[in-house]
Amino acid sequence: MYPLITMGYFDGTVGNAGLVQIVYSVGMLSGGTIIGLFDKWKDRMKPFLLSYLMIGVTLAVSGVLPLYKEGFF
């Protein structure tokens, strides 16, 4: 979804879409590492739902940013 927003809404380049994917991947790896290190969750649904909440918030924030390059950076 983020590369589509980058290319369509922010009028970004392929390099910008690649940067977004790298940042997204690093965030996913970081989240997986945190969950792996603290694997003594009583309720495993809480971190799962928190991750979906964070993705929803970042998509909503991306939607209200100004168009074109100003909003991307």
From TrEMBL:
InterPro entries assigned: MFS_trans_sf (IPR036259)
**Protein keywords:** Membrane, Transmembrane, Transmembrane helix
Question: So where does this one cross the membrane?
Answer: 20-38, 50-68
According to the lineage, what is the superkingdom?
Bacteria
Q: Under what name is this protein listed?
A: Major facilitator superfamily (MFS) profile domain-containing protein
Q: What is the lineage of its organism?
A: Bacteria, Bacillati, Bacillota, Bacilli, Lactobacillales
